[in-house]
Amino acid sequence: MKTYDMIVIGFGxxxxxxxxxxxAQGKSVAMIEADATMYGGTCINIGCIPTKVLIHAAETGxxxxxxxxxxxxVTSRLRAKNFAMLDNAATADVYNAKARFLAxxxxxxxxxxxxxxxxxxxxxxxxxxVSNVLPIPGLTESKQVYDSTGIQTLxxxxxxxxxxxxxxxxxEFASLYAKLGSEVTVLTL
Length: 189
Description:
There is one protein chain. By secondary structure, the chain is α/β, with parallel strands linked by helices. Helices cover 34% and strands 28% of the residues. A six-stranded mixed sheet has the order 3-2-1-6-5-4, covered by helices on one side. The chain has a two-stranded parallel ribbon with strand order 7-8. α3 (48-59) packs antiparallel against α4. It is elongated and about 55 Å long. The chain starts with a strand and ends with a strand. The model has no long low-confidence stretch (mean pLDDT 93).
């Protein structure tokens, strides 16, 4: 079993900042992230930054494909920078794996059918956001339904788009896709 001063589960803003500061003090840190496309967390990869890049691209006249390409350039660059920040730290190890608790202060990580046990006095859970799926019959079976993450990675622009929910995220996507030329309808509950 490998021993650390701190284990951080989830590569989001708070966790990566805490891990980097702890490593800079010479303490050993394990950073565990299940999805390599989420280095840096929700805001950098599927939240506020990529959506603002898309909106800015649409407002400056980019078409759908070039707006999506710009989003990918920005998120890839930030993801790589965040990964390097910890991966280059002498006392930090970055694991691309799933984590689960086995006991108090003991975590098992698994990746590619291999497991390893880690322990630390301090374990931080920083696992990020997950979309809420409404209990609407047929919703999860449809190939034409996307959450706020999936709609950011579409290959083709929808001509017509219905958005369920008139909150901040729904309205942000409604205004973005309308600006790009889609016919948008917002459904509020």
